[in-house]
Batch of 4 targets.
Target 1
Amino acid sequence: MNNAEQIIESSGVLVETMKKYLYILDAQIERHEAVIGGIQQVVLEEGHSSVLPSGTTINWTERLGSTEKELEIMKELRDKIANS
């Protein structure tokens, strides 16, 4: 196999790998969107924070903000990969 054939084969493998990564990333984005909806519902029902039976306090507003930021980063990454 010459260099050109190796480059073409490697490019094909890279494209397939990126397609798989985009599929996984899309699934993660869907999960994060569902989590955000769940957190928003908890905030409406329980307020901005909750105390678990273990005594741990969860600040839902903080959790919502960090999850939304993660979602934004994932969407930007997906768009950059899809456009490359």
Target 2
Amino acid sequence: MIELREALANADDPAVMPINLAELPDLVPRLDDGDAWHGFWRPGASSHQFWLPTHPVAGPATYVVILPLDKLLELRAEAVLRLWRALVGRSECLTENELSDFSGL
């Protein structure tokens, strides 16, 4: 599960990517006993789970991902990348063209 937190961001920054979590198609939101919010999103063949300590704001917002430095770091990092790729409409896997972009690094 991916932990998200709302973050302040400069709206003029071209790298900022506001997301309206509540309007993701096919999102199944769940509240726990407190104010924490769980999202289960299945945009296609894959599914994504994320958690916020509070209910998301109404409308678009910017978020940061919390990645603990533990034994599950690699799995969480891969899950974050898959979520990001789904949010921007890309395939979960890198294409040959994208892989070739890294060949010169």
Target 3
Amino acid sequence: MTKEKHSFLNDKVIPFASKLSQNKGLMAIRDGMGFAITLIIIGSIPLIINSLPIDG
């Protein structure tokens, strides 16, 4: 990475991303999405097993 890109990231992007990650609203959305995705994955496993082509 060039020195200009590195300094741009350090001066502009990283402070903005740090402020964004400390936002309480965005933290709540992030945590809620993580919980929802976990439930979706756990709930989809029985559906996948149920749709297997097993005669019985």
Target 4
Amino acid sequence: MLLLRIIHEGGDIKLLRHHNISFREIGEMVETSIDEGLLTNSDDIITLTDQGKGFLDSNIGIIKERDKSKWIELDMKNKIRKLDKDEVFLPAQNALSFLK
């Protein structure tokens, strides 16, 4: 699904790499999608077929998150307890992972 959306929008496959998919796996996904008739490869340009566009349109809800509260994941490992008004929190530099 994500591969089809990236190709349709002319995006970058680095998004797939961000999801820990290797270049070899991406190549295999492209070949499988071509074999299934979702993509076409002409003049070294990979595009969606009409069947691929239909598949993407009918399944776009799978990859497009509508609930804005789920757009950013909570970072529970760095959450600190609620502090009083007069209390100041000074973490050690190695205590929080985002400071590393």
